[in-house]
Structure formats: C-alpha cells, structure tokens
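Intended use. Records like the one below are meant for learning the mapping from a protein sequence to its folded structure. Do not use them to infer anything beyond what is encoded.
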Amino acid sequence: MTASLDATRALAPVLDDDTIDHEFSFGPADFERVRKLIYQRAGISLHDGKRAMVYSRLSRRLRETGHRSFKDYLQWLEGVSGPAGEQEWQQFINSLTTNLTSFFREEHHFHALADALKGFKGKPPRIWCAASSTGEEPYSIAMVLAEVLGEHCGARLVASDIDTKVLSTARRGVYAADARGLSPERLKRHFLRGTGANAGFIRIKPELAKMVDLRPFNLMTPNWSMGEPFDMVFCRNVMIYFDHDTQRTVLRRIHDVMRPGGLLFVGHSENFTDARDWFVLRGKTIYQRV
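Structure written out for the chain above:
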C-alpha cells in the first residue's frame, strides 16, 4: 500500500505558487521578497511551508489597498513614506504575526511566579511581558500579582507586542465567558460579567487593568529604552520565530534590561542553554539572569 502511494506521488505533478489558481499573482520571487521584508522589520524567519499562510493573510491587504499582484503591492510598500507608509508597514507586520494565547498558559510558570513574588513584599517588583498578544498573558501575571501582593502593591507590569491590532483587544480587556484557563474563583474575583447584549462576555476589573501598561514594541528596535531594570521578564513562544543570530541578539538585550538574579520565563519549546554567559537554567523553561 505504501509503495503504491509513493509511486502515485512520484507521478503527480509538482505544483508551485505560479500554477495554483490564485486571485492575485504570487510567485516564488514574491514569497522571497516577503520573507526578506518581514525578517528586516520584525526578525521573523519564515520557512517555505509558510507560503500559503503568507498568501492568505497578505491578500487581504492587497484587496484593501487596491493592488492586483503581490509584486505591485510590495513595490508600493517599499516606496510609500510618511504616516501612511508607517501605517501600512504596521499592517504588513500585523498580518504576518502569530498570536496563540490563553489565560495561565503553561501554568507551572505562574506557580513559580507566585513563589518568586513572596520575596517582594514591601518592595514592588517590575515585570515585562514582551509578547502580550490579546492580553491573556499579562492579565494572568496581574492576577497573580494581586493575589500574592495585593491589587495596590505598586507593582509595575509593562506589556508589549509588535502587533497593534492585538494590543487593541488587550486594552478592551473583554473575553468570552468560557475562556480557557480561568478558575471559578478567579472569574469571580478579577472579572465583571456582561449582562443583556454583553451576556456571554467578561471584562477585566478596572483595578486589575490599571496594573498593566500596554504599549507597542518591536524587539528588533536597536536601542531599548525601558526605564528601570526588570525583576522578571516573560518572553514566551517568541524566539521560535527567530533564527539563531536574532535569538542571541534579543537575549542579550533582554539581559541588559534585567536586574542581576532576575527571572526569564520562556516557551515550552525554547532552549537557551547555549547562552550561559547571560542566563542559567533555574527550572522548567525558567532562566536566571547572570
């Protein structure tokens, strides 16, 4: 059966993006151009398997800007300037970023966070969530801060993302009432339930929302101006989109904005044991700043 299937595959024609019936012209050269531009702007490294995703997401921009091919759109994008140019570059980046998140995702990190926060009573910590997406992650951090140190502890939680669209969702702080990761106790303590037309939705309570400073930030920015050093940084499931050199650059910059001994929380598939000059492993996907 397997040999027959393999033989059939061998006889089948190999289709590339020039032979697929697309609404817009999209060939290998267009994909390579997109790869180059998103790498330059956001550090994201797209592999060949992302062609369909790139076409699907960017084709919306072509429709909205009135272009009939990717070649024309990309040529226009590289030449447009001023506020309109910056806005379209942001739309380009927003289109190609991936935002998969939930409340208390990778729950062991939040247990470790609660333990670490016990040493900050009377001394408010400074925390950075470097990929806040639609807000579930920074609000999860804020909930733990409120539970361990109190809602008026003075902690500063900076939450950033390169995607301005997801930041708008985070600022609203409105989610489905059945959002994953929330216990009944946390739903009652930290959220307001919608009624009437808003039934089925929940909103972050104002006192918790005030703890989170949401702002746009591109990790490829060469000079980071983040204020006082951070005691903890959450940069989870971000580095998987970068190549090795970009990972090293970002890790060095994170190191530079942290206090010695601070904790770095990373994603479940991210491993930075080759960066021992900056961070040492202290737990499951938790590193300590040297």
